[in-house]
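dude i think i finally got it to work??
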Amino acid sequence: MEISAAGRLKVRITAADVGKRVSVRRLNEEAPGSEKFTDTVGVLTSWDEDAGVLLITRRDGERVRVAEASLVAGKVVPAAPARRRGPAASYEELARVSARSWQPVESERLGEWELRAASGFTRRANSVLPVGDPGLPLDEALTVVRRWYGERGLPAYVQTATGAEGTQELLCAQLEARGWTREVTAELWVGGLAPVADLGTDTAEVVLSREADEAWLSRYQRKGVSDVALAVLGSGPSVWFATVPGGEGEAPAAIGRCVVDGRWAGFGAVEVDPGRRRQGLATAVMAALAGRALEEGASAAWLQVEADNSGARALYAAMGFGAHHSYHHYRSA
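look at this
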């Protein structure tokens, strides 16, 4: 909160601060008997002076409606927290690294936006990555996006992010104002790579391969994988697949995928036979992949995890990973 020299709370933000990260304190009139004040930190995405309403987008993408009349304090704060868990990285760096790890079969530039398509296999490979300026007014750019995906028989999606410096809180608000619907929210976590590899006390049974063979695919959650899906799975600068064999004639006990790209190693598709969970197999898979990534010169790691996957979140937190930013997929109205 902001306090003046006289000790009074001050509101030091205005509509001119839209797009900046702010911290506000407001009267909590909606919950009698609870705390008198409520604090909100996030990006100021709009300020309707006629209606007297502010919208603030929190780190996880949640939008909070604040009545101007309820404000008791407010100030602009640094664009991102001074300290984050894990290796230092910008949003743009991670957005591009994660995009290279899961490449579409077709893409086209729209200014600095990238339109991506892969016959509908996953939203990530069939959505716009809007890192930068599309080179057109937003409404015109979205018209191009809808047409491009419509020509391919696909719904139009835009992948956005919130919660870090350079993310797209304003774009999220603009899409929602135009009727686009957020369908998926997840988080990108980062951590050191060596600590993951150091967990590899039981990696002898993990088999590493450059290709996803039939056994690996039999454990993969997406069934009926097409040639397009195989192309996406195999895309990236240096791709590795890990398998822990199951019993004779059975699907693998566990699998995983890792893409090495410079200093980064990105983990995904870590899946374990439900009957063999809590045996350390996911840890063994990630440790084996991390060891190989270290050999190729990587030092940092990233992965994506959904907000409601409590088991995975606990596992990754124990490995030293922490959230860097949230990302979302918006579907055209």
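Residues 278 and 318 are 14 Å apart (CA to CA).
im so relieved honestly
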